[in-house]
Specification:
By secondary structure, this protein is mainly alpha-helical. The chain is built from 14 helices and no strands. It is globular. The relative contact order is 0.16. Bound molecules: fe (ii) ion (2 copies).
């Protein structure tokens, strides 16, 4: 198929990818140590055990979700590269959670793996995404708006699990996963901010209404994997550890973040070049 250049670039150079990639490489250098864990399952509430199992599988499902990323990023080479980097990081989360489950004596089964590997995600997710994507909105930017919301949901989910898991060692690792999810959400934000510097004004104006549509009917990608529905491990379980405050904090944070795109361009977008603003200072 002939190459068609994207209408405007995501990034002029791959430097931002480099920064996020390097930060990610520092995060889990001790992953093999987790094989030695022995954890007492009686200390972990049943709802957290369910969450860990389902979330481990959700992270394992990344091979499915990355297909839609590649679809919507199209010929944008740098964003396709990010999809590959991101997929490896989500696989790392699966591995961390799997080690936790094994240390708690409740590892994943062959049925779990087979259920996830059945390729029944793509068409269902694409039809949801297309019904939610605003007409005429750049499909990369639409994916980034979804990405900010989905990754921020993951921050809330892991933070809630860390508070309720009952074992300090586990809590510390779940917080580390949450920090990774902050970085993922931040990557989506930084990319949007880069694109609004070069996109036509009408594209920038669609960010806020697109966010409104996403947040009002939020569906996580796992809802489109049949196995999660068969096993009752979809979004309800994913959100089961959240309380009212978690929900309102999430909506408030995201509303404030996306609200900046409603303001005039001159003061609506900040220059975000230093590592703190990239959300990676803590992890580097
Ligand atoms: Fe993750
Ligand atoms: Fe993530």
């Amino acid at each position: 198929m002939a190459y068609t250049a994207p209408p405007f670039p995501s990034f002029p150079r791959p430097d931002t990818l480099d920064q996020f990639f390097v930060a990610g490489r520092h995060m889990w250098t001790d992953i093999d140590e987790f094989k030695k864990w022995k954890l007492d399952p009686s200390k972990v509430p049943a709802e957290v055990m369910h969450f860990l199992r389902s979330t481990s599988l959700i992270e394992y499902g990344v091979s499915q979700y990355v297909r839609s990323y590649l679809h919507y990023y199209g010929e944008d080479f740098k964003l396709s590269m990010w999809s590959a980097i991101w997929a490896a990081e989500e696989y790392t989360h699966y591995l961390v959670l799997r080690r936790m489950l094994e240390a708690l004596g409740d590892g994943l089964t062959d049925e779990d793996y087979a259920g996830l590997e059945r390729g029944d995600f793509y068409d269902s997710y694409l039809s949801y995404f297309e019904s939610a994507r605003l007409d005429g909105f750049d499909q990369r930017m639409a994916q980034l708006v979804f990405g900010v919301v989905q990754e921020h949901s993951a921050v809330i989910a892991y933070t809630a699990a860390s508070k309720k898991c009952g074992i300090p060692e586990l809590a510390a690792v779940l917080k580390r996963v949450a920090r990774d999810e902050v970085r993922h959400s931040r990557f989506n934000q930084v990319t949007l901010e880069s694109m609004v510097k070069v996109c036509p004004p009408e594209q920038r104006e669609m960010i806020w209404p697109q966010f409104r549509v996403v947040i009002s009917g939020l569906q996580m990608p796992q809802e489109h994997v049949a196995y999660f529905n068969e096993k009752h491990m979809g979004s309800e379980l994913y959100h089961s550890l959240w309380d009212e405050k978690d929900w309102s904090r999430m909506v408030l944070y995201l509303t404030q973040y996306f609200g900046r795109f409603r303001k005039p361009l001159e003061d609506g977008v900040q220059e975000l070049e230093d590592p703190v603003e990239l959300g990676i200072a803590e992890t580097a």
